[in-house]
Amino acid sequence: MKLIRFILAMALLVAGPALAEPAPDELVKKTAEEVLAIVRADQELRAGSPKKVLALVEEKVLPHFDFARMTRLAMGRHWREATPEQQQQIVREFRELLVRTYTAAFTSYRNQTVAYKPFKMEPAANDVTVRTEIVNPDGRPPIPVDYSMYKTSNGWKVYDVTIENVSLVATYRGTFTEEIRRGGIDGLIKSLREKNQSLAQQEQKKG
Fold this sequence. Notes:
Nuclear Transport Factor 2, Chain: A, ABC transporter substrate-binding protein, signal
């Protein structure tokens, strides 16, 4: 369930690049409200059309996430053990896994809204946390979602998402460590590739 909630959290952070670089909290709020309006108005997106969701993710989500940094953090010390070629493969497969998992789980959206926590940052800050909550329309407790973001030459990028105090990066670090323990770096790459192939097959069945 936590991964599905991460998927929803990603869905609330999609938008095209702005002309002026917004503050991180403004970026989260502006894009969340924009994408919620898009999703509510699009029956195919709400139904989880694989092709349409995948196109949306590729165009809108990826520019706001630094998947290379997420992968390095998830790998931990094992990152330095991988060759440059292996590193590229892992980043590519991990990025694809998150995107395909997102696509498969998009039907979890059920008219949730977003509440934004007070945000303050130092003028020179280059690493911040933007805190939000996903509010369920059925009265269930809100789900805390924190975006870890850092400043780049291309604006603020998300490098981790923490949902109900569980870090996405930390979760995958445990998974990656276990895969590497069992099969080495190549074993991790193989495992990621197989998961992606399985998700791709599921998408094809859904059409």
